[in-house]
Design a protein that fits this description.
The chain is of the alpha/beta class and 218 residues long. The protein is built from seven helices and nine strands; from the N terminus they run βββαβαβαβββαβααα. The mean pLDDT is 94.
Length: 218
């Protein structure tokens, strides 16, 4: 079964084609570009490139897997809107995965903190034991995270390593497409119904609607 994997929860714009079989999950083709300001410009071309490299027509896809974040409002919305739109057009189910869970799963054994950059001098974070989430996801200033872990992963952990006080795996900064696909593989094999893609924003966007005008003083 061929699956399109998308994630735009971090500065990394990720698209991949994965093959899900009874024996496991393998990445057939993938693209990742780290550019926090170009999610809207890069994601669609990346999708076209991985499909072409894999020799897969859109109609051959079995499902779409999307990273739900947590992540900044604008970038996260790009991936989720793309995933939902393609799934609707192709008539295939779409499944959401917490993007931090992919980092935690990729980190493997031990107690791990996964943290991505939430901007405003904050991080999105969760903790994992042997790849299984124990706490989170949450958003906080690095100094307020205050968890016990053996090491950390994610670009947020790298950015604030001095504050977190944990060794950081510099090779594992962004949610890997393989592990996003693995987290949804059971649903793909079971042909589970499509899911609503509920983004993990964890806080309100910077832009808000203006409030009502205050009455003029008399």
């Amino acid at each position: 079964m061929l699956v399109l994997v998308l994630d735009s929860s971090t500065p990394a714009v990720t698209a991949a084609v994965a093959e899900v079989t009874d024996g496991g999950v393998a990445i057939v083709a993938q693209r990742r570009t780290v550019d926090a300001r170009a999610h809207g410009e890069l994601l669609a071309p990346h999708v076209a490139e991985v499909l072409a490299e894999a020799g897969v027509r859109p109609g051959e896809l079995t499902a779409i897997v999307a990273g739900l974040g947590p992540g900044p409002f604008t970038s996260l919305r790009v991936g989720l809107v793309t995933a939902a739109s393609m799934a609707q057009v192709l008539g295939v189910p779409v499944y959401g995965v917490c993007s931090l869970d992919a980092l935690g799963r990729a980190a493997g054994a031990g107690r791990v903190l996964a943290a991505t950059d939430a901007r405003r001098k904050e991080v999105y974070w969760a903790t994992y034991a042997d790849g299984v989430r124990e706490r989170g996801p949450e958003v906080a200033r690095p100094a307020d995270v205050g968890v016990t872990a053996e090491r950390a992963v994610g670009e947020g952990a790298q950015k604030y390593a001095d504050v977190l006080g944990l060794p950081v795996d510099g090779e594992l900064l962004y949610p890997p497409a393989l592990h996003l696909a693995e987290l949804a593989a059971g649903r793909v094999r079971d042909k589970a119904p499509t899911e609503p893609l509920t983004p993990l924003y964890l806080r309100r966007p910077d832009a808000v609607e203006p409030g009502a005008r205050k009455p003029a003083l008399r």
